[in-house]
Automatic annotation (TrEMBL), chain B:
Residues 94-234 form the Oxidoreductase molybdopterin-binding domain. InterPro entries: OxRdtase_Mopterin-bd_dom (IPR000572), OxRdtase_Mopterin-bd_sf (IPR036374), TAT_signal (IPR006311). Pfam families: Oxidored_molyb. It comes from the Bacteria. This is Molybdopterin-binding protein.
């Protein structure tokens, strides 16, 4: 099998009719991706369990119990209602937030419903165990990914947009929003929008999420008091941890949606085997625009 | 493209089903002995790494008077039902004697006045409940290290167990299970580890653990036993309650509560 290097250093091989194969994802990155899928799923579900032990968020060092930023409670009425308050505004969230059915089908006061938490039943001790074990796996996985990415240059190649990509950012954005995906040579690399999104997630949100989690540890607070100042207090850190978790969920939704609309089997094959198939011959609209510059 | 959409719908459905089933499956997995042990590996890692990061004298942050929470949430037991405790409380704890016992050279029996006579430490610290809330309070008490120095530790001493006055539940034989907690010697002799008899400048109230409450400022609230009656030095936690070192630990919580 003859192979050659493309502009992004990707190995290409095995030409097929109208398409060609590129080796898109090295094994370490594929493994890191799927380990991340498991970790983030467990961390989210166990995190919601931990949140449910005191379903309220505050700002600063201490809890201002009467004035939470967010809270989820059940009313004393008959029948009870689930009520979520957000920045002083109240919403009826019966059935999902504040009040939901337990495993026996009875209404129970819970922040997030049992189907979204790990363990399913209210179990703070169990949720913490899951959360910490998978936080360690997530951290080690991330460190391996970063070390590999830096050592091989993959990180920069994947996450840093090139100058020409940035120049055509507007065009890329329009095409991406219209679900018109690049073909040919341009499809061998992520576009500027993808790179910037992954950059924000990989080097922004995920490290910030780890730090915000560590800021919740009284032991870590003693070892590194600066972390409390970084987040504006321990209660702020829990709020930020919660907000970033929501942003990560939003990212995953968009990411999975884009995977689905841009060729789910090709994308999945790429992240499982490493091999990604691209259309040859046709120039992508972005490349044409690029040709004018 | 209908084929693609169907495949998409199928994949979405399958993913959702696998997701829901796998979260349910996680509950069953957690019940298996090997995975239950694996889950505890995270706790072990927390203790190992935090001990590397923290010196024996690294202090938890202390705050200013102005930071003290106007209302400090009482939690856990707030009014022990136990008759012996009620009798002590009725008498303003004049008959209270703290026992220091176990692997010590000289067992002690100390009244509140004896404890007040020891050099006191006052600290304004943040109390972090495992549930996810925090309050700041001012605590005054006798450093645990001073008591242990006076009693003298035997060479095989490894842990300090706190036996409390408040009943949490009834054992199968009907006897009361009273709160118990433990720390190792690193935390026992830490400068901020005190047996507090005052909170916010006033004698400790019943709801906050009168007459004595442990403060272990680099850990979570459940380590900070209220209504402490006995300080027992031991070589191992095996014989303490269910063997995990504390009431909540025997109910699944981590013994090391630094996170």
């Amino acid at each position: 099998m003859a192979s050659s290097e493309t502009q992004d250093g990707l190995v290409q091989a095995r030409a097929a009719e109208g398409r060609r194969w590129v080796f898109r994802h090295p094994a370490v990155i594929r493994a890191a991706h799927w380990i991340n899928v498991v970790c983030l799923t467990v961390l989210l579900a166990s995190g919601l369990q931990i949140f449910n032990a005191h379903p309220a968020l505050y700002w600063g060092e201490v809890s201002t119990f009467d004035t939470p930023l967010v809270s989820m409670t059940a009313t004393e009425t008959d029948p009870p209602r689930g009520v979520t308050t957000l920045l002083g505004r109240t919403f009826d969230t019966t059935g999902v937030l504040g009040l939901s059915k337990d495993s026996a089908g009875e209404p129970a006061e819970r922040g997030f419903p049992g189907w979204s938490t790990l363990p399913t039943e209210q179990n703070l001790a169990g949720g913490r165990r899951w959360h910490f074990l998978f936080a360690w796996i997530f951290l080690l996985n991330g460190l391996v990914y970063l070390a590999y990415g830096v050592a091989t240059g993959q990180l920069g190649r994947r996450l840093i947009p090139s100058r020409d990509q940035l120049r055509h950012f507007g065009t890329t954005l329009r095409e991406h929003l219209a679900f018109r995906f690049p073909k040919g040579e341009e499809a061998t690399r992520y576009n500027a929008l993808q790179k910037l999104t992954y950059l924000i997630v990989v080097l922004g949100l995920l490290p910030a999420q780890i730090l915000a989690g560590l800021a919740l540890s009284p032991g870590f607070n003693a070892a590194a008091p600066w972390i409390l100042d970084l987040f504006g207090g321990r209660r702020s850190a829990r709020t930020i941890h919660f907000v970033i978790a929501n942003l990560l969920v939003l990212f995953v939704f968009v990411h999975v949606a884009m995977v689905l609309v841009s060729g789910v089997w090709n994308n999945l094959r790429g992240m499982v085997t490493g091999w990604f198939s691209i259309e040859t011959g046709a120039e992508s609209p972005r490349a044409q625009t690029g040709g004018e510059a | 493209m209908t084929g693609g959409l169907n495949r998409r719908a199928l994949l979405l459905g399958a993913t959702a089903a696998v997701g829901a089933a796998s979260l349910g499956g996680c509950d069953q997995l957690a019940d298996t002995p090997w995975f239950s042990r694996a889950l505890k590996a995270g706790d072990d890692a927390n203790l190992f790494v935090q001990r590397l990061m923290l010196s024996k004298t690294t202090l938890a942050r202390e705050y200013a008077e102005a930071d003290i929470s106007p209302w400090f949430k009482p939690n856990g037991t707030i009014d022990p039902v136990d008759a012996p405790y009620k009798a002590l409380a009725a008498n303003g704890f004049a008959d209270f004697r703290l026992e220091v016992t176990g692997l010590v050279e000289t067992p002690l029996r100390l009244s509140l006045d004896d404890l007040r006579g020891l050099p006191a430490r006052t600290q304004i610290t943040r109390h972090d409940c495992v549930e996810g809330w925090s309050c700041i309070g001012k605590w005054t008490g006798a450093p645990l290290s001073a008591l242990l120095d006076r009693a003298g530790l035997k060479p095989e001493a490894r842990y300090v167990v706190f036996r409390c006055a408040d009943t949490m539940e009834e054992a199968n034989d009907g006897s009361p299970v009273r709160y118990y907690e433990s720390v190792d010697l690193v935390d026992a002799v830490h400068p901020q580890t005190i047996l507090a008899y005052e909170m916010n400048g006033a004698p400790l109230s019943v709801q906050h653990g009168a007459p004595l409450r442990l403060r272990v400022e680099r850990q979570l609230g459940y380590k900070m036993a209220k209504y402490v009656m006995v300080v027992e030095v031991v070589a191992s936690l095996d014989g303490v309650g269910g063997g995990n070192g504390g009431y909540w630990e025997d109910n699944g919580y981590a013994w090391y509560a630094g996170i």
